[in-house]
Design goal:
alpha/beta, 329 residues, twelve-stranded mixed β-sheet, four-stranded parallel β-sheet, binds threonylcarbamoyladenylate, 10 helices, single chain
Length: 329
């Protein structure tokens, strides 16, 4: 199959809709990462997403809808705090998990009685969702376990030949996946951290829990238990106060002829004074936006990525650290 990359316009939207209503998949941009979308009502189309990605079949998908879509047709028992959160943060990088009405294919939630719903803010995503006017099941558009894609080119390098169309909406500005929030209980609970932080949610909802997955526990969000976000080269991770150790490692490996690169924030890069650096930039939002593109750049040039954790570890950095730790284990 030939994989085309098209800018979003009337022509490409018509092609995309044709693919979707005929049971195919289309890669779409969002403000977090690119998604691989299919009609959520079509069981076969949804199942093909799992095959194309090589995704474990117990890891449920998020349904994406446009901002005027009637979400109450898909889910029930929406608590008051969720209405407040939706008003505050949607459209945006927040996925809300509710009790499902069972309207979409059971394959979307892998048999769970809940459904994860997301209303992305990316203008191109909104145009596409409005144009098809269907709930679109979409995981990140990478091969399972690989680094998530933040550009059309990233999707192409993972899925070339496996899908027909990538809608190009530029680089994803958010850079890490949406916050996944369980809204089925008395208070909201974060299942996956992201750009909408626990502090931001608690401010609106009064309180917000966070589910920390440990091996062997029942995974509330099955995605937590899988290896994720891994670049193709070797990796290791140092704490923010271990710059000296990381530089020693870099020099030892480089002396052996290994192509080693430091992956770190801008300030750390300045202090490290080494040649090969994958610079994540400054401030939590810039670091999040650059994380996946730097991991992908790294796997193309490096044999070993030596990552150094940023000093700040609250707010958006909770999500960044979660991805960085998984990428480097
Ligand atoms: O930003 C994003 O969320 C991106 C873009 C494309 O929208 N999508 C994304 O999808 O990251 P994916 O499939 O890579 O991650 C979905 C996460 C997984 O951790 C999955 O376990 C969880 O959401 N999830 C989906 N449905 C769920 C449900 N019903 N209950 C609990 N967790 C759920
Ligand atoms: Mg993913």
């Amino acid at each position: 199959m030939k994989t085309e990359i098209l800018e979003i316009d009337e022509n490409s939207l018509a092609i995309a809709k044709d693919i979707i209503v005929n049971g195919g998949v289309v890669a779409i941009p969002t403000e977090t990462v690119y998604g691989l979308g299919a009609n959520a009502f079509d069981a076969e189309a949804v199942e093909s997403i799992f095959k194309i990605k090589g995704r474990p079949n117990d890891n449920p998908l998020i349904v994406h809808v446009h901002k005027d879509y009637d979400v109450s047709a898909l889910v029930k028992d929406v608590p008051d705090y969720a209405k407040l959160l939706a008003k505050a943060f949607l459209p945006g990088p927040l996925t809300m998990v509710y009790k499902s009405k069972g309207a979409v294919s059971a394959a979307v939630s892998c048999g769970l009685d809940t459904l994860a719903v997301r209303i992305p803010s990316h203008e191109g995503a909104q145009r596409f969702l409005k144009y098809v006017d269907l709930p679109i099941a979409a995981p990140s558009a990478n091969v399972s376990k690989h680094v998530s894609p933040t550009s059309a080119q990233h999707v192409f390098s993972d899925l070339n030949g496996k899908i027909g169309l990538i809608l190009d909406g530029g680089n994803s500005v958010g850079g890490i996946e949406s916050t996944v929030l369980d809204c089925t209980g008395e208070k909201p609970v974060i299942l996956r951290s992201g750009l909408i932080t626990r502090e931001m949610i608690a401010k609106v909802a009064g309180e917000c829990g966070e589910y920390v997955y440990k091996d062997g526990m029942r995974a509330l969000s099955p995605g937590m238990k899988y290896k994720h976000y891994s670049p193709a080269c070797r990796t290791c991770l140092f704490n923010s106060d271990e710059l000296d150790k990381a530089v020693v490692k870099y020099k030892e490996e480089s002396a052996k002829g290994v192509k080693a690169y430091l992956l770190c924030d801008g300030e750390t890069a300045e202090r490290a004074k080494v040649r090969n650096v994958l610079n994540l930039g400054y401030g939590e939002n810039e670091i999040a936006a650059n994380l996946y593109s730097k991991l992908r750049e790294g796997e193309n040039v490096a044999e070993l990525i030596i990552a150094i954790a940023p000093e700040k570890q609250d707010g958006v950095m909770v999500g960044v650290m979660n991805r960085l730790t998984k990428a480097c284990n």
